[in-house]
Amino acid sequence: MRFLLAFITIYGGKLLAQDTIYYDKLYARNVGESIEFEYKSRTTGQMEKDKLPTGKWLSLDSNDNILVETNFVVNKRKKRTLKVGLQLFRDPITGDTLLMREYNKAGVLTQQLGLQPAILVVVNSILHIYKDFGSYTIAEYRKSYSGANDFTTIWKSSLEDPTAIFGDSNYLNFEKRIGDSTLLMPASFSTKAEYNYISNPEFEKHPSAYFSIMSFEDQVSDWSVASISPDFYLSKVGALSGNSYVGIRVFSLRKDIEYIQNKLRQPLVKDSIYCFSAYLKLSPGSRYATNAFGFLITQEKTYIDTDELLDIKPSKNLNTQILNYKTQWMKVQCTYKAKGGEQYITLGSFQNHKELELVEVPGTSPESYYYIDDVSLVPIAREEDCACNFADYRKPPPPPPVSTATSDSLATSTYEQLQVGDTLILDNIHFDNDESKLLAASFSILYELLVFLHKNNRVHIKISGHTSSVGGHRHNVVLSERRAAAVKRFLTNNGIETERIETEGFGPDYPIASNDTQEGQKENRRVEFTILKK
Questions:
Q1: Over the Cα atoms of the chain, what is R_g?
Q2: In the beta sheet, which residues pair with residue 334?
Q3: The pLDDT of residue 289
Q4: Partners of 504 in the β-ladder
Q5: Which fold has domain 408-533?
Q6: pLDDT at 154
Q7: Residue 20: φ, ψ to 5°
């Protein structure tokens, strides 16, 4: 609420200080078709006639430039008209689209997307489109009778500008140092190859997606969601080919990871060899680059549930290189031998959490989010016809596990030995200073706890957060509660039922070391795990 009040104060005061488009003053005429109907006047009691707009209507200026494009549908029974489908607001000088709005069949606004900074005044509404952390936000105000601009809503889009990273010279220098040029080689086969089994390989067929969509469902032909909330992007500047591409999250400590699925043009032939390739690019806001990408080819349609993540075996795990470019598209390519009859391919991360590799890169979101474009699956005569930059085993096999306090076997036995009421400090749970966001360094110990809870599905636990005494008491209690909740969120996002986990924050109330030294303060900043039920 504090942020909202500040926003209203700052933007409300400055709202009309910059160039503003007063659409009402620019309207010269409206063009479109109408339906005529009769109604009984409440004033005179006589039958009168009126018209309701239907279909596409254009609002034009004096030079016949299109200012606003709106679609209407008439409800004859109720004798009223509704906005349905797409509504576009355009710049009167350049003709560029500034704002897209989409209304459902009931005339309810369900989507809107700002494309350029602008302030639009339409009748008694003021729409302020502005850039906020790499994406556009739309704030709406209503003119009251007193003449004040009363704030009504903020519509936040999480779709970021994929070209924004080119203005970050620090990142560009960083990418030159860590980039792997082998990822930038062209694919062996074009998406337009005659025998590409991927349907709609460049995502260009999207009959009901008129603009970028957060959490698309069935708007993109031949592609479906195999999890919750993958995203669809419509941007010629951002796409590798054409105008469209998709985005999925492959690693996060706070949100669900995502998968997309394609219905192949025809079933695969038993024992035939195919060359798979796809292009990926790390999003500008991602803080981590990772090796987490692979695909699953199946006979039946698949939906990935986080409960299954620890047990799913992908067809190929392309996990031998860090996919670290934000400015260039990276090719991932390998071969696949068909079992016969496969009709679906699912793309996403199938990486075992324990083996996940993460590299921190400049970015604001503690996740790995990748754009995907130009996917192909082409039959080949020889494996060498597919210039693979990924293979099943590109690195030498890892050495046998050492019997240390961090090995899976010892960690599992430590958890197994705990009885109801026993408490264990979860070492190496890391947060930013004075923050409750989990850092990637916490991943190893959280994975061990996750495995234990999956193997022992009757166990109920409590996660307790503790802080040092530095800072105000109330602040530290709230911070410890949020940190405990962050650990719970990681576990529930990876398939642990929420009712099995309680959380509590104690702030600085139960120190295990002196708060007079930095070392003691560090020990007191901890997360504990207690067995409630076995």
A1: 28
A2: 276
A3: 92
A4: 464
A5: 60s Ribosomal Protein L30; Chain: A; (3.30.1330)
A6: 60
A7: -125, 140
